[in-house]
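Inputs:
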Amino acid sequence: MSFLDYFKSSKKNTASIARERLQIIVAHERGQREQPDYMPQLQQEILDVIRRYVAVDQDQVQVQLDKNDDCSVLELNVTLPE
Amino acid sequence: MAKIIVITSGKGGVGKTTSSASISTGLALKGNKTVVIDFDVGLRNLDLIMNCERRVVYDFVNVINGEATLNQALIKDKQTDNLFILPASQTRDKEALSKEGVEQVLNELAETFDYIICDSPAGIEHGAQMALYFADEAIIVTNPEVSSVRDSDRILGILQSKSRRAELALDPVKEHLLLTRYSPERVENGEMLAVEDVKEILAIKLLGVIPESKAVLTSSNSGVPVIHDQQTDAGKAYDDAVERLMGRERPHRFLTAQKKGFFKRMFKGSATA
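Outputs:
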């Protein structure tokens, strides 16, 4: 590393940090925005049904709706305790 | 047929009113009969930016409530022909804007005007939703800064789900990005999001980039929209944006840092425009 490079690299490129943080948060918020209104309640009721049989935590059930061009896929992911 | 254009952002202080003043002035200067409406009930400022604050007698809410006619409330701009201002009420709250009332006023304006510019309040509540509800096009004013970009994306979501065009499943509201307070020097130093970054994240068409400029403050001091000052970068950039809004092609300017000469570098910051 040359003497000049030392000064250059001491200045952090914060713009690229901003870009990456924004890409993540905007993608996440768009995903939630496209969900139908009933999703939180659907998730709660599915959780209640599973809990009648197995003791699972709130965060052990993940419900996600993925939209493709011609169909939507409701993905249900339950992690059961050992 | 009149085109209804909302100028919105989600976040406050990014330049909605400044942009509303210059864009409506620009449209009128180019021969379009234009009216600009202040939707910021309770916190009106468009009148001040356009130098007609002492001529406000009746306002938007008076017209909605039938306390005044539209012609009584409209203020004719003294600096620009073809331009009228409909001020917001300073003493009511935003709930005074009923959807039916706003629609009735817009319909009446649409009979005589080419462009209806709606200057939205900040936020995503009732006032902002009323400003965007009837829009055909939207100008999203954004600063190259994380909170502004995130809020712009939020308002885009509302345009796509809660506008009249969305509710009636018509053609969607045409979205334009207006990036303001842009500093090419800081972008080159890696301190500021570049125009390409913001465009990519928001995924909308770029209407214009307004460079950070001292002229914006000085023009608001005297109530002369900055587009009147065609000597300044900001004034020229707004003029380009208005041309693009009218469907003409204009190359984007002021996107790269000006090379500083020897003397400017020696006397850094003392005499930069």
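Remarks. Chain A has a mean pLDDT of 82. The CA atoms of residues 11 and 43 of chain A lie 46 Å apart.
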